[in-house]
Amino acid sequence: MKKFHYVLLFIIVATSVALKSDNPAYVLYDADGKEVKYKNLVNDALDADIVLFGELHNNPIIHWLELELTRDVFAEKGKDLVIAAEMFETDNQLIIDEYLDGTIKQSNFEKEVKLWKNYPTDYKPLVEFAKENSLRFVASNIPRRYASLVNGKGFEGLDSLSAEAKVLIAPLPVDYDPELPGYKSMMDTTGSMGNSHVTPNLPKAQAIKDATMANSILKNWQKGKLLIHYHGSFHSDNYDGIYWYLKKQNPDLKILTISSVEQDTIQNLSDGNLNLANYIICVPSNMTKTY
Questions:
Q1: Angstrom distances, CA of residue 174 to CA of 7, 160, 222
Q2: Is residue 165 part of a domain?
Q3: pLDDT, averaged in runs of 10, over the chain (291 residues)
Q4: What is the domain-level CATH number for residue 98?
Q5: Residue 11 has what pLDDT?
Q6: How far apart are CA 141 and CA 19, in angstroms?
Q7: Residue pair 66/126 in contact by the 8 Å Cβ criterion
Q8: Res 23: pLDDT
Q9: What is the largest CA-CA distance in the chain?
Q10: Minimal CA–CA distance to 234: which of 202, 269, 264, 261?
Q11: Taking the mean position of all CA atoms in its chain, how far away is CA 16?
């Protein structure tokens, strides 16, 4: 009888695992499209100086994995972990610091800082994790008004800013390569759609964001620490964007990149998603969205 119970338990567990594996919420691949285990990602992250985690902004599975990875690397790195994110702008750093150190209440923080609409579900868990564990949380992105200035006037539009304002962005002049895949595709895609309002300043506005985020990362990283930066995948796909700016300033940095993609079927990584990053998280296209 006891043997029968063991056999029955084994069948139940095996069936449950099989059913879950038949319809997974995500599959993790390496750059070449080989399926890999999550623990490989954790180990490689712990071996890096910088982790560039490219997300799909409205995907709950990706946001869950962001928090999971943060927790798992914190278990090893402790206070040597630094968190940074595109979703917070450099002119809000003081407010973030005041909230994390307990100077201001959560209600004041959430009222006064510029928050994305999906903050409560997607980014608040990361901020609260930083607060609970006394971790540095870096607001890395350029204030949106200055990105808009570049979109309208090019990089030259930044020259008239005050010295106080320039502290909030990457040092000028910024390097810019319009042939990087991400920037080039912005013009190719919008041009093919016949958008007459698109100008060559659009990828420049993207570049000033990337340059500023890279600058924020470098200002807040020290040797021996691990900094995880969360941002839209297009900011580091193909090892350009933020990655390119980081390597320009410090070629010796060990940078791990992660990209997030959606596919109708996720059993294999499509050719178009190969080599986007060191790791690619593939999620079903019909996954529930957070907004």
A1: 66, 15, 23
A2: yes
A3: 45 42 90 98 98 98 98 98 98 98 98 97 98 98 98 97 98 96 84 63 97 98 97 97 98 98 97 98 96 93
A4: 3.40.50.11550
A5: 38
A6: 42
A7: yes
A8: 87
A9: 84
A10: 261
A11: 33
Backbone angles phi, psi at 289, to 5 degrees: -105, 155
SS3 174: coil
* 34 assigned to some structural domain: yes
Q: Which 8-state DSSP code applies to residue 91? A: G
18 HSE (CA, 13 A, CB side): 6
Contact present, 206 and 182 (Cβ < 8 Å): yes
The pLDDT value recorded for residue 208 is 98
Q: Which residue has the tokens 């580091």?
A: 236
103 residue type, one letter:
T
- Per the structure, the count of domains in the chain is 1
Distance CA 181, CA 171 (A): 23
> Using CA atoms, how far apart are residues 267 and 269, in angstroms rounded to an integer?
7
Distance CA 164, CA 141 (A): 16
Strand, coil or helix: what is 206?
Answer: helix
In angstroms, the Cα distances linking 182 to 121, 214, 234 are 28, 16, 7
- Residue 108, classed as helix, strand or coil, is helix
- Per-residue pLDDT, 175: 96
SS3 97: helix
In this structure, is residue 17 part of a structural domain? Answer: no
pLDDT at residue 157, rounded to an integer: 97
Tell me, yes or no, whether 176 lies in a domain.
yes
pLDDT at position 196:
55
C-alpha–C-alpha distance, residues 217 and 74, integer Å:
18
CA dihedral defined by 204, 210, 212, 214, rounded to 10 degrees? Answer: -150
Q: Are 45 and 278 in contact (CB under 8 A)?
A: no
For residues 140 and 86, give the distance between their C-alpha atoms in angstroms, rounded to a whole number: 6
Structural domain span for residue 183: 25-284
